[in-house]
Design a protein that fits this description.
Helices cover 27% and strands 23% of the residues. The protein is α/β, with parallel strands linked by helices. The strands form six sheets. A seven-stranded mixed β-sheet has the order 12-13-16-11-19-17-18. Helix 2 runs parallel beside helix 5. The protein is globular. The two termini are 41 Å apart.
Amino acid sequence: MQLIKKSIDARDREDVHFSLSVEAKIDGNENELVARRRSHEVTLAESYQYELPASKPLAQRPVIVGFGPAGMFAALILAQAGQNPIVIERGESVENRQKTVQNFWENRVLQTESNVQFGEGGAGTFSDGKLTTGTKDVRIRKVLEEFVKAGAPAEILYEAKPHLGTDKLPLIVSTIRKEIIRLGGEVRFNTKLVDFSVSNGKLAEVMVEEQGKNRESIPCDDLILAIGHSARDTFFLLDEKKMALQAKSFSVGARIEHPTAVIDRAQYGEFAGSPYLGAADYKLSCHLRDGRGVYTFCMCPGGYVTGAASEEGMVVTNGMSEFARDGANGNSALLVGVTPDDFGHSPLDGIAFQREIERKAFQLAGSDYSAPAQRVGDFLKRKTAGSFKNSAVVPTYQPGVVEADISRCLPNFVTEAMRLAIPYMARRLKGFDSGDALLIAPETRSSSPVRILRNEMMQSLSVEGIYPCGEGAGYAGGITSAAVDGIRCAEKILEKG
């Protein structure tokens, strides 16, 4: 017998319990047993084992730009297939990146090429490490198994809401990198894509530049663009090269922070605080009368709000949790959906929209990478002055917060939608509208504002041999779905070989 799924059923606060699914090998005829039981809870188990596509050696080594989840798993699959991929990552190795990010949080020294957004492991390295996804792709199992092989807890294979935690992710991603190198791959840090050339509609070579060194040309037939949602300069390069790009909808808002105990009581009732349950999470959403959606995203139980800027003179927030999720507060992004009708239909208009918000937040909070923060009670009452010094919520944001009216950095239609949504969400999560809860702005990087258009072969509509991939290209939303997309792109290259 083997445990394959474990979830918490907290629909009835007086009867919080676990729901388990197991696979069992039995003596006798399994089909007869299932027929005799006549229960939807008893079914024949379907086994799954990932198999690499058959392939021949490629004429040129494939190149992968970006070493977040999408690029990492694309590289791993190609390395396992013996294709010796070359990975280009503009940021640092995770060991050095951790020091750089900590220096930003503590001393407000921002490195624009290596930060929360850029570097080994991608933006997900400094997050809760959630592995939940809406996709049903069977390759998810491959992703989870590779994480476990790299040091992740085995429970991610059966938890209904698995997560890794920002404290465990560095070792996991560095172990996967070492495996790629062991299999013949190459990973170049502090190196970025600066140009590429095309011949007769096909990719011919890529130009890369390591920090402090000259440009290098790499002959290349297959390039996986796993650049992440914050690679704004690369999006501008693609636009200059006349790549097929499209403005896409995304979301903006702020981080909302509550005491962990408040969330636990709202979700688990008298069972709150049980060591068996851990810190509670939540997922809330509503559609306003004007049709605009408001929802919570990337909830970090027992976590922290962090500075996630990647450009000078701008403020961005994000959330992260350690594996134990034992922090005093929980936070999530409270987001309002925005569309090209709100910011413009040209491919790069969404980036300009994000930058304007981030720049205003930087200036509003004193131009030192502090973030503007406001009590929910003051925000709902439209009070521009107040104090959270005696609030029940001590802000966790690093580098630090400054009390301010967050309406001064977010568009009016966004803050109005948030004001309407918060009381509605409190009907489902008691205390969500607590006056002492904090809003820390802005959250602008929930997903890419650009989609790099691709065909059914997962290649660019403009250039044969370029594979737009993952969250930055507009085809994923989170660690697991990005990793799966990376696997799919690698498979297309192998099928071609």
